[in-house]
Amino acid sequence: xxxxxxxxxxxERPDICEAFIAGHIAVLADFGIxxxxxxxxxxxxxxxxxxxxATQDETGIIVGGIRIHIFNGTDPLPMQVxxxxxxxxxxxxxxxxxxxxxxxxxxxxxxKRVFGRGISYILTRSSVSLAGLLxxxxxxxxxxxxxxxxxxxxxxxILSEVGEEGFFSYPIPSHRACAMVIRDLENLPGGTxxxxxxxxxxxxxxxxxxxxxxYNRRPICVTYNLLA
Length: 228
Hints:
Layout lengths: L1 E8 L4 H17 L18 E8 L4 E10 L7 H6 L5 H9 L4 E9 L8 H13 L6 E6 L4 H6 L3 E2 L8 E3 L6 E7 L11 H10 L5 E7 L2 E8 L3
Parallel strand pairs: 1-10, 4-5
Antiparallel strand pairs: 1-2, 2-3, 3-4, 5-8, 6-8, 7-8, 9-10
Helix pairs in contact: 4-6
């Protein structure tokens, strides 16, 4: 199958945002989750929010997405709203990161029709690529247990100074979320795979880059359009 990943400023494409929200709600419902703090429409009017969606070329259907929320120094990031009652140190992390520019990656989802095809990992890669083109030095995120290692391979490290060495029971007791951080978006130190670091830097150079990849022994072809 062929897919295209495209980035938009949320305020410029309300139609894309509505499709994003509908897809995300459907996926969360499958997991019995309803109280995710970032799952609102308020971000649609925020000029500091960017959306990346994955579209299946053959059908034109949006099959996944992820968002970047830039911290403006005043309004809390979704991760702050979610975690501050559990551990207020998350506010300190964001305030300190604001000096060099900090944002949160959130709202990652992919539809049932593409489970097991690596779309969530490709979206994570794309968000790290895009964040490196914005006036940011660091990026934070909440990761599910089944995506944590893949997030580390794509630039993240565990934000161990919050929660229980970075872990929280969120958004429901049976889910063990992990706070993640990239503190150097340019160089991506830590556990980043060398090949991922090379691809991320490549995707920051031009639109229309197409890569043939294999996930779970399934070949996919992905075109990236992440530059404004």
